[in-house]
Amino acid sequence: MITKETIDKIFSAVRIEEIIGEYVQLKRAGSNLKGLSPFVDEKSPSFIVSPSKQIFKDFSSGKGGGVITFLKELEGFSYPEALRHLAKKYGIPVEEDIVEMSPEQKQQRDQKDLIYKIHEVANDFFIEQLWDAEEGQQIGLSYFRERELRQDIIKKFQLGYSPEKKDAFTEYALAKGYDKDILEKSGLSVFPENAPKGVDRFRERVMFPIHSFSGRVLGFGGRILNNTIKTAKYLNSPETEIYHKSNVLYGLFQSKQAISKQNLCLLVEGYMDVIALHQAGIEHVVASSGTALTVEQIKLIKRLTENVTILFDGDAAGIKASFRSIDMLLSEGMNIRVLLFPDGDDPDSFSRKHPQDYVEDFIQKHAQDFIDFKAEILFQNTDNDPIKKAEAIREIVKSVAFVTNGLKQEIYLKEVANKFKLSEQNLFNELQLQKDYKNKEHRPRPQIAQPEQKLEIVPNIDSKISPLFVLEEKLIELMMKFGDVVIERKDAEGETYKISVIEEIIQHLEEDDCQLQTEINQKIVDEIKAGLQEDELRSSSFFFKLMDEDISGKMADSLINPYETSNWAKFNIYFSSEEEVVPKMVSDTILRYKREYVMKIIGDLKKALETEEEKEEIYFKIVKLSQLRNHLDAMLYRIL
User: Fold this and answer.
1) Rounded Cα–Cα distance for residues 303 and 300 (Å)
2) 3-class DSSP assignment, residue 488
3) What is d(CA 63, CA 165) in angstroms, rounded to the nearest whole number?
4) Confidence label for 567 from pLDDT (cuts 50, 70 and 90)
5) Which of 14, 117, 484, 569 is the most interior residue, by most CB within 10 Å?
């Protein structure tokens, strides 16, 4: 278990805007930062990060909380994993309390965690083989040096080598205590009938670890170096519990900050293309990991930028793949340009031939929009044949139909009309045909008729929200937002005294022995009371350190407002800030809460009259409580 001292150090060092900024392109919005939700698809940004409060709130999905909640939601981390990830990022040594685990507890350790761990072990093993073993140096390191890779780049991408020996890693992992089941489920080892002790999936290959967005190793790509062996040039990890190749982009972990900074992503085909461009100083680049581009991969890019330039080497297969990629990117609202390198070159070879400035300038000058690119390719073999030309233009319009923004569609069609001297009306007619065809393709099949359902009488459910509950929520919000704010009050003798917001609210709850409406609010109040006994004011920052997602989400709901007040001061128009009216808000909310609490008790007593025989005492209580309610009403009238 990670020690409390370590957790405190982590929370002191971490900046939520830095962590979330690696996943979401954030832009300043008043005192907050705003971006597109990483949890759901949306066109207008509703994801808000508050650097001052160190929380986020996603108004599309409803998720919210601190940095731990964000990592747990997006990366699937457990609480300890999220802490270790943050500790590693900020260079904080992790100290743990020694906890003995029983054999049963060891068996119950999360299998997914073990699969992550075995991939770390494998990555360290392959790196060690590359740098420290004679075979790795002579074969693997020599290959990377032939490809002109510098030492810092080899280490940046954690490249490694798997030995020729058929069970080198399997034997190593078993000796470290990892069992056959985990090795098999990780895809790193196979256990055929003729080799029950297991063999390595990757043998005599240079290794490319594939990382998650946050840097965890999910799988590997291995390139064979022995050309005499008849096998696939590249071998990838199989689909596992942690590795789904359609959800991963190679190099995204190393490139995400550059992509966000440049507001542009270069999309290439292979591992070496990414690595070579990084070595050339061009770091805003990813590869689709040897698969056709998927919607999930596009969404990963879209977190950081909506601008993509596809880099291809110009072979027939690459061009065909680029057409499909263009349509998918357009359908996800991306802005696309395409670049074909000169014959015989790919991003790897081109970046090794030329200096960084030349490569960057070449990409900028020669990247085309998708209309010019498709026209250049499709019109190569038309031979002035009007039918072939019409088919080529239809293909271009087909791509325009994937554009989700109506204004962009119109601009693109005007561009096509000008380029080919065509009637805009004819192009719009063709666009509508393509849209109809697309909609027909995606239209759900007719369902088999179901037996007629009889109407049922549904009991009327009272959907009104209790005013007492609303005011209770407001009291919790005031303690979270302004708990440590000190306000001035006067006692019965007229003497001025100072008290914190938290202390005043808790005092009033205790003196009336108020029972809170929800379990989560009771939990928060209990924690606050425990803090007061230790002379500690526990407000929002304390609760984000608790391993409680419900509380963390509640804090975000309380502390982040979806709307920013305009800067009226520049027009010499001024409003009171929340902080300035805190004393009145606190007293007003407490009085209203007390009144509603009295009304609840009166209501409960009136119900008791229906069943209790001794009614006189109940009537007496109702009269007294009604007098108290009138007194509270008078107090509220005076402060209004």
Assistant:
1) 6
2) strand
3) 49
4) low
5) 14
CA distance 58 to 36: 9
Instruction: Please check whether residue 286 is in contact with residue 304, taking contact to mean a CB–CB distance below 8 angstroms.
Output: no
Question: Residue 171 is encoded by which pair of tokens?
Answer: 């034997």
Which are the contacts of 275, defined by CB distance < 8 A and separation ≥ 6?
149, 153, 157, 159, 251, 348
Entry pTM: 0.68
Distance between CA atoms of 44 and 361, rounded to whole angstroms?
33
Token output for 298: 């596009």
3-state secondary structure of 489: strand
**DSSP element (H, E) containing 57:** strand 55-58
SS3 190: strand
The rounded distance, in Å, linking the Cα atoms of 398 and 417 is: 14
Q: What is the rounded distance in angstroms from the CA atom of residue 411 to the CA atom of residue 416?
A: 9
**Which residues does residue 209 pair with via DSSP β-bridges, in sequence order?**
220
Task: Write out the two tokens for 390.
Answer: 């019409």
Spatial CA neighbour of 93 closest among 19, 13, 18, 16: 13
CA 35, CA 172: separation in Å to the nearest integer? 45
Distance, in Å, from the CA atom of 300 to the CA atom of 290, rounded to the nearest integer, reads 16
Question: Higher model confidence: residue 105 or residue 378?
Answer: 378
Cβ neighbours, 10 Å, residue 453:
6
Look at the alpha carbons of 221, 225, 229, 230 in this order and tell me if their dihedral is positive or negative. Answer: positive
Structure tokens at 219: 């799988």
Residue 581's Cβ-side half-sphere holds a number of Cα atoms within 13 Å equal to 9
Nearest to 303 by CA among 108, 574, 524, 40: 40
How far is Cα 77 from Cα 69, in angstroms, rounded to an integer? Answer: 9
Q: How wide is the angle at C-alpha 26 spanned by C-alphas 25 and 28, nearest 5°? A: 150
Q: Which single residue is written with the structure tokens 């989560």?
A: 520
CA angle, 158 as apex, 152 and 164 as ends, to 5°? 120
In sign, the C-alpha dihedral spanning 285, 289, 291, 295 is: negative
The dihedrals phi and psi of 629, each to the nearest 5 degrees, come to -60, -40
Question: Is the pLDDT reported for residue 299 higher than 80?
Answer: yes
Phi, psi of 623 (to 5 degrees): -60, -45
Written as one letter, the residue type at 275 is I
Question: Mind listing the pLDDT tens digit for each residue in 79-94?
Answer: 888 888 899 888 899 8
